[in-house]
Amino acid sequence: MGLFDRLPPMDHLRSEKMCLVQLIFPAESARLAVTYLGELGLLQFKDLNEDKSPFQRIFVNQVKRCAEMNRKLKFFSDQINKAGAKLGEHEHELLEMNTNSGTLRQTYNELLEFKLVLSKAGSILAASQNHATPADHELDEHIYDKEVDDGNGYLLEQGIHQGASESGVRFVSGIILKSKALAFERMLFRTTRGNMFFNEASAGEPVMDPSSGEEVEKTVFVVFFSGEQAKAKILRICASFGANCYPVPEEIVKQRQIFREVSSRLSDLEVTLDAGTQHRNKALESVGSQLWRWILMVKKEKAVYDTLNMLNFDVTKKCLVGEGWCPIFAKSQIEDVLQRATLHSNSQVGIIFHEMDTIDSPPTYFRTDKFTNAFQEIVDAYGVGRYEEINPAVYSVITFPFLFAVMFGDWGHGICLLLGALFLILREKKLSSQKLDSFTEMAFGGRYVILLMALFSIYCGLIYNEFFSVPFHIFGKSAYACRENSCSDAYTAGLVKVRDPYPFGVDPSWRGSRSELPFLNSLKMKMSILMGVSQMNLGILLSYFDAKFHKNALDIRYQFIPQLIFLNSLFGYLSLLILIKWCTGSKADLYHVMIYMFLDPAGDLGENQLFWGQKELQILLLLLALVAVPWMLFPKPFILKKLHKERFQGHSYRFLGTSEMDPDSEPDSARSRHDDFNFGEVFVHQMIHSIEFVLGAVSNTASYLRLWALSLAHSELSTVFYEKLLLFAWGYDSLIFKLVGLIVFAFATAFILLGMESLSAFLHALRLHWVEFMNKFYHGDGYKFKPFSFATLADDEE
Q: Which GO CC annotations does the UniProt entry carry (predicted)?
């Protein structure tokens, strides 16, 4: 391990060093100091009043005032949205205006409906009386406006009841929603058993619904009936259907007088409503210019008092005591902020800030930027790392988009992804200031992940030599030609090698040949195994660096070493065979070699022997793999038990120079106190971990074959779309067929290959990192550093 000991400590791959600090605020400077700390955003306060309810805390009244102010601001925001300082006075004024406006609007709607009923019901009544043609008596608004008032006005206030003719036939007139008119008529007919006559006419203009504020279509109706019981039933049905009944006199003269009166009052109400709307809009404009600044101010103030409620008074009741976590690099900045708060608050006593000793595990904090933040979020979705644990996001910046590209390799599709990523990046400032839908927000947050996935897809596509599944001679001429000079179909005639190998990627002549699918299958399957074994070895090596950093010698001796031996004795050896076969061009059957390595280790390899001493090496590797299993399982629990007994008996073992004397420091040991050490639990935990690794070594290696499967599926699906859609349509002479084929091909490429296939490759790459890579070294059971910061308030929604 001397080579590893000389390597740098990899501090830049770990979370920031944290410390627990205590702050003692004088009462007069506490609020201002917490405000400045919120602007800095580098201190996470601990709640020292967890046992108290929100109503038992110190600043509960201030929090209530902020909540009430926030309610008022939300009210103004809602009003401004509907319509397109001293908040208490503004609120009272606006509430009064809304009440008056609602009353006036209701009166206006009633009068408008009454006017429509008078206009339409009058003609119905005139026709029923057969005094003249309906056209002579239709209450046209323009005709009524020309009539002269004879002094019998204000009949509306006098009240007019439903009319009754000399024959005893009565009628009820009103207005109802057009969508309810048919059901309303049927109900009247059934209730009166047909002893009524229903007449209706369209209102002719929409009426505003007071409940929804939308304009709706209504129908004017007149129901003729006889008897008081029928009248009571009809009025109840009108009420149940939401129909508004209005009195219409039978006399034409009275109808005209009421119509003029209603029209006059409607004109006055229109003027009043317009003036009220203008006054209301002016009041909202005066508030709206400052509203969003006020909302943010109230949010900050409430956050400050919520934070102050986490503090405790000292014994003198003159100072507030708080505790919190902060990064080591931020201590000087926090001290400067506290000095500034003391100066600005004119306090005679400074704020005390000092570091505390603790056995608690600190929070995990990684400094990220807009490029690395998305990769860190991918890792945190699996689990937040322990304090100062190796951060997989650093490696995922390269490995994640690369494994995606292995499954998505097509440089034509990669260019499409690249254009989309560049669009999001170039419009970064504009999009970051807008409210986006969930899908666009997710794509925008991962714009740099998409950028790298696109670049690696172009690279892998060039290796696969696929541009929308079509190969190109980009890097020179093919190394192969048809077996016969006159042949044009390489699939039937076969290929022969005529020049040096194609310089980069897959030779385009493999396309359409008889050996295309077997060759690409073999290539991508072996490549997947090599990538999987390499990444799993990287994970095991990272577990060594993590154990070395935390001085866990037990993990190095009894986990890292046997795990490395077991994995490489089997699958590292398989990777070696693959490389030797590629380099030598051997026709050895690697399936046969690996199977009979277990079934018949001493058997003759025959034509499957790739190098001298292969049989002896296989026996040695098999024995090492068998030894590695008990090596992982038994020593560590018994050593921990021995160390527990020595500690319990008071022995000193500082000469060991390792952390084995402290079971609490072992990440995979019992994390309880030494006097609660349970050997059974430790042994079962170690047994589960060992079995999981042994079985996982097989299943995880097989899991990397998804790289081969998805890459092959993506390539074949692209070929199907190209040949069965584009080329098929291009075989016709009709321009319409060609355009239709091109459009269908474009939509299939966009929605299936660029949409569904990219999502599938993304999820599979995510699984390979979470399960196959990160479980070799990453615990992910920490908690995130969440500092008190005003920067997060601006994006929060109520």
A: vacuolar proton-transporting V-type ATPase, V0 domain
List, in order, residues 6 or more apart from 582 with CB less than 8 Å away: 526
Distance CA 399, CA 507 (A): 26
Residue 157 inside a domain? The answer is no
- How many structural domains comprise the chain? 3
Q: Is residue 524 part of a domain?
A: yes
SS3 for 162? coil
Q: For residue 776, which of 535, 529, 497, 456 has the smallest C-alpha distance? A: 535
For 171, residues 6+ apart whose C-beta sits below 8 A from its C-beta are: 125, 162, 163, 164, 222, 223, 224, 225
**Both 381 and 417 in a single domain?**
yes
The encoded tokens of residue 245 equal 């009944």
Residue 472's domain comprises: 371-647+679-776
Last residue of some domain: 233, 249, 267?
Answer: 267
393 lies in some domain: yes
Residue 426's pLDDT is: 93
362, 385 in Cβ contact below 8 A?
no
Q: Could you give the maximum distance between any two Cα atoms of the chain, in Å? A: 126
Token pair belonging to 151: 């002094």
Decide if 571 contacts 416 (C-beta within 8 A).
Answer: no
Residues 356 and 399 in one domain: no
In this prediction, residue 86 carries a pLDDT of: 43
Instruction: Reduce the DSSP state of residue 28 to 3 states and report it.
Output: coil
Check whether residue 322 and residue 377 sit in a common domain: no
Q: How far is CA 294 from CA 39, 63, 79, 710, in A?
A: 17, 16, 16, 53
d(CA 79, CA 419): 42
Does one domain contain both 241 and 257?
Answer: yes
pTM over 0.85: no
- Evaluate the CA torsion angle 129, 133, 134, 137 in order and state its sign: negative
Tell me, yes or no, whether 243 and 392 share the same domain.
no
Burial class (CB in 10 A: 0-12, 13-18, 19+), 559: buried
Q: What CATH number corresponds to the domain at position 256?
A: 3.30.70.3450
> Quick one: tokens of 125?
């009544």
CATH number, domain containing residue 327: 3.30.70.240
